[in-house]
Amino acid sequence: MTAPAATRQPLIRNPRFLRLWAAETISHFGSSITGIALPFVAITLLQAGPLEVAILNLADFLPFLLIGLLAGALVDRLPRRAVLVGGDLGRALLILTIPLAYLAGLLTLTQLILVGFAVGVLTVFFDVAYQAYLPSLIGREDLVEGNSKLEFSRSAAGLIGPGLGGLLVDLLRAPVAMLADAASFQSLHSSSPPSRTDQQR
By mean pLDDT, which of 26-35, 137-146, 179-188 is the weakest? Predict the structure, then answer.
């Protein structure tokens, strides 16, 4: 008699995937808050004009054009989980400098632009590593479902996050509201074990 096939564990009961899903959801919502707060800070506190706001938005997007291919080549030689964790910790620290500089009375438009660019660079590396990390975290038969759940979180954050960010900016000063984004990056993979792929590197 042929041995019965192993029972497939539902993805919703996979603790490693659930950690990734929860952390990514929190991170997307945090980024939505910063997406509202950053230009608000530039306009209301630093009196930035249309050109300065355009430069600020460009600084966040430019890394995707400049280093996308280079990031792919570098990430392929590095442990994916280390890139993910390092990218999120780096983004948290960068964003944290904005409320700290504001509270110290040292915040400038130049700092906002540099932070936006640096966060964009780390996001490029994070996104590239993330695409390679998920298949090592779950089975191939679960990739479609896993990507669907993660994309749902991204879409939900895009719809709900700006409203939430506007509420926090209204209740708090915009730079202080960005603390929520810095805190959100701390959750990613903080307690999940490395994947088999990373253990072999």
Answer: 179-188
Length of the chain: 201
DSSP summary character for residue 12: G
- Please state the pTM of the whole predicted model: 0.75
Amino acid at 137: L
CB 32 within 8 A of CB 161: yes
d(CA 196, CA 136): 7
Distance CA 102, CA 108 (A): 9
- What's the rounded Cα separation, in Å, for the pair 109 and 46? 7
Among 32, 57, 46, 48, smallest CA distance to 167 is for 32
Amino acid at 116: G
Q: Taking the mean position of all CA atoms in its chain, how far away is CA 26?
A: 9
